Amino acid sequence: MAKKLKSWQGWILFGGSMVVVFVLGLLVSSLMERRAEVASVFNNKRTVFEDSIVAQNEKFKADYPREYETWAQTEDTSFVSKYNSSQEVDVLAARPEMVVLWAGYAFSRDYNTPRGHKHCIEDLRKILRTGNPGIDGDGDMQPATCWTCKGPDVPRMMRELSESKSVFDPANYYAYEGKWSGLGAEMHNTVGCSDCHDARTMDLRPARPALYEAWARVGKDVRKASHQEMRSLVCAQCHTEYYFIKPDDPNNPGKANYLVFPQHYGMTCEAAEKHFDEIGFYDYIHPLSKTPILKAQHPGYEIALQGIHGQRGVSCADCHMPYKQEGGVKFSDHHIMSPLANIDRTCQTCHRQDAEVLRQNVYERQEKCNEVRDKAERELARAHFEAKFVIDKGASEADMKPVQDLLRKSQWRWDYAIASHGATFHAPQEVTRLLAASVDYAKEARLLIARIAAKQGHLGEIPVPDYSTKAKAQEAIGLDMKTLRDKKQRFLQEIEPKWIEEAKKNGKLIVI
Fold first, then answer.
1. DSSP β-bridge partners for residue 415
2. Within 13 A of 472's CA, how many CA atoms are on the CB side?
3. In sequence order, which residues have a C-beta less than 8 Å from that of residue 114 and are 6 or more positions away?
4. What is the pTM of this model?
5. Which ranges constitute the DSSP H helices of 342-396?
6. Can you tell me the mean pLDDT for 102-114?
């Protein structure tokens, strides 16, 4: 026979049930309220776009104020870390060996750490690597392709200048054959909404054809990628290794300076190298060692795939655009920056260690990678000068061919490892492997050079000029920095203001 509850026990059970029902009611009410708030964002848009590409980022502010405000914060450069802070840092001043390694290429003139997306256009215009049109007859040194990843004006212009009016038409060469300054008056809106979203639906969608073409070459369709993959692919359309088809390439007539991602054989350093070797590609001939050099751009996506986070399916946005909550709205923080700035919302969503422990874990990996990087840069810089020494003494092309092959391999691995932003955290083991291989190839090259020098009658250490500072290194490779700076200053004073004024008049640039 069941035991009868005492009256006070019944009242406690009743009261407890009422509390549970009340709490559940509050939760359901809160959930409904939040769903309604989220729905209102999309159902009550103030601006409905009929076009998939809207270049002016300010036009999204009214409907997406949270995303816009956090995106605008990429202008902030106050974050400081042990490595790769958000300030603009002169890398060549800190590492003058890099001037020597990039001799013969515009990066030897100027190379700074990247700032936030809000600064992309500004930084591209002022850097000494871009052309100085109209200054004492000095023409552009860079093609229009250099604008490709700098903002949503790029896909806009791709479509406007395409016969098919489609951004994704494989036959769309738009202005790749033109010069950088040719589109200067059109490029004003920095990396923003339409680079990653379809303006009509706000669905994630990369806006650069090179990514779609690279996937198509290996039988894949970017449009069929999952949402989680898209949270990386919108970054991968720019943070990736690329090259420009050369104007004199007989295999690609009519495609001068067309942008290509070398992913034919895979997503590794060696896979890209295999493709480049197969087509006989090089970015420039090093003026000291006469080596055909491959210049890595920023293979951030490829490097990230080699690391543990990439292998586990963690997206770029998971760490660089952590979620925030305001009322009933959960949204991605568009203040894209180092995860170390928000460890509580990035690292600690998966890792339960103390924030300082996690920060020191990152620093430890970076320090170890940089130890090997220092060695690679020292070996390579000296090798280029030593190669020049034996060439000037009469070394034959046959003598130098194996040296140049080794230098090409060495510098490619070094550049691939260091050009990727955040690589020493994304995949520290892969970066260390590449840098260690770079050191080995450079040492082999120096050994061959020493043997050539010995045959020429020179024994002992080969003399090299002083390149211990940025200025000394630039002088050693023959750069006239004063003239370059003067011309750039005149460009910024005489031509850039005209571009900006024209854009304001025709409504292509909104100033708020």
1. none
2. 10
3. 123, 421
4. 0.89
5. 355-392
6. 95
Beta bridge partners of 430: none
Cα 440 to Cα 28, 98, 406, 410, distances in angstroms: 64, 18, 9, 8
**What is the SS3 assignment for 54?**
coil
Around Cβ 46, how many Cβ atoms within 10 Å?
7
CA distance 322 to 344: 10
From residue 205, how far is each of 225, 317, 321, 438, 501 by CA, in Å?
10, 14, 16, 37, 31
- d(Cα 84, Cα 91) in Å, to the nearest integer? 10
42, 88 Cβ separation under 8 angstroms: no
Question: Residues 348, 318, 219, 247: is their CA dihedral positive or negative?
Answer: negative
In this structure, the strands spanning 259-260 and 243-244 are antiparallel
**What's the Cα-to-Cα distance from 123 to each of 8, 41, 76, 119, 338, rounded to whole Å?**
75, 34, 14, 6, 19
Through-space distance between the first and last CA atoms of the chain, rounded to whole angstroms: 79
| Side-chain half-sphere CA neighbours of 68 within 13 A | 11
pLDDT exceeds cutoff 60 at 1 = no
Mean pLDDT (whole number) for 438-463: 96
Give the model confidence (pLDDT) of 199-227 as tens digits: 999 999 999 989 999 999 999 999 999 99
pLDDT attached to residue 171? 47
User: For a pLDDT cut of 70, what percent of the chain falls above it?
Assistant: 89
Distance in angstroms (rounded) separating the CA atoms of residues 279 and 210: 18
Q: Is the model's pLDDT at 40 over the cut of 60?
A: no
Of how many residues is the chain composed?
A: 512
Contact 153, 131 (CB under 8 A): no
Q: Residue 321, Cβ neighbours under 10 Å: how many? A: 25
Tell me which amino acid residue 227 is. H
* Identity of the residue numbered 232: S
Confidence label for 37 from pLDDT (cuts 50, 70 and 90): very low
Amino acid 175: pLDDT: 54
Predicted confidence (pLDDT) at residue 165 exceeds the cutoff of 60 = no
pLDDT at site 170: 46
Q: Which residue type sits at 467?
A: Y
